[in-house]
Design brief:
By secondary structure, the chain is an all-alpha fold. Helices cover about 70% and strands about 0% of the residues. The model has no long low-confidence stretch (mean pLDDT about 90).
């Protein structure tokens, strides 16, 4: 997977999570509904993968 593709996926996951959080009455900064939690975890995994690819040592 190209770094650019991974970046795009991570940015889309962030946008999707923030859009959900903005409209969900159950989600807060410290608590998430099941859908909000799933979206946040997806964003966090993709962000971690992208940032790990950016490190010179690959960690």
């Amino acid at each position: 997977m190209a770094a650019e593709d991974l970046y795009d996926r991570y940015q889309l996951a962030h946008t999707t999570h923030r859009s959900h959080q903005a409209t969900c009455t159950d989600c807060t900064d410290t608590s998430r509904c099941p859908t909000g939690q799933r979206l946040f975890e997806s964003f966090a995994r993709l962000q971690d993968a992208y940032l790990n690819r950016q490190r010179p040592d690959g960690r």
